[in-house]
């Protein structure tokens, strides 16, 4: 989610509690009949689909979230399924749970991570994209790492249609042919299956996969993990790699950074791969989340190529890399790297944070964006925006909330398309130069607790559709919207729920162009 969870006076209290380091405790029908002699026509058989796969969080290993197929018009909810069978709401009514993104195969099987009980208990469900019918399910024994806001449990596809998900003790679970109900479930531990078998209880209690899994085109996977005191062999948190043939390696965050305060991968932050897949970028931090580094590692060996301490552009002191967020690196088509952080002093930038921007080597710090909190930037081909006259080949789409009662925030919450190579003075902190706003659009639903304000946008990664020149964005008002780049208007919408304050959620696109969004612990399939 966001730091500002919902409209109302409770929002400020929540913000203050997080800033102070307080622990937040997440505490259809129908009928009718018909003539016996007149039967309704049988539904037509599902149409076979062979389209582009959506591999997991951010759609690709660069987290560009750019669809390879035109999305269907947002006309109706075609089907829905819960992603949490026991959602735990805070005393203020907020849903402080990060839900994993669906992954969708090229044959349109939708892989849905599902939380089964109050404290965890996860399953991957495979649903037919045509109608949502359940095809198969796979239980996971993954245990949540220590947290305040419940971390995300994710599912990832490889180019060969193998599906991966986190298991207990730092293991990963997998099965081949994600479209098949008869595939065998398997698991692998990056530190060795023999070691896990010999000390299962201790590994389960001390070692946790704590990021989404990212796969390259050869089927090699990358993920972050955390290890508590007492982990077998003195294992320290960091980054792991498992090749398609099961060969594994890992590197400790403390060793990579040479900083004793940095001991794990940042929670929920998926590793990203360069476009040539030779470099893997990963965010690491410490237990308190007060500072962190972005690392560039050799994708084959996990040897450090470069590192950068993540600094607040205004104060030039370490920014906050919070474990309450889900920001992951995004890689531009030119190799530039984008990563969202919180400001060094809470609410100094209205709790918006900053989108830090580096070249591929991390040696050059470039112009930041004016929003970074709990958001992974999406890549927008410049040709999608007819009015754009700059020189950039691609633009950056981010959430652009301006949280009411956080600093000088006015609750005029927007989404934005930014020019990574254009500049302007920041509208909140004019002394800071930020990426130029190309287009922004304000939400539609008034915030009753803040005159002139509107309800927050509720996305941590938004799907971009170059074919219709639009972006699919979810709002806390309970609606899924299409943001049209040609008109700069919200041209289509479907109401999913009555709306609530919740952790930020992803949007995704299926192999047949169906749009997927999560609201109030339910995944909705929206289309024509």
From TrEMBL:
By its UniProt entry, which InterPro entries does this protein fall under?
A: Quino_amine_DH_bsu
Q: What is this protein called?
A: SMP-30/gluconolactonase/LRE family protein
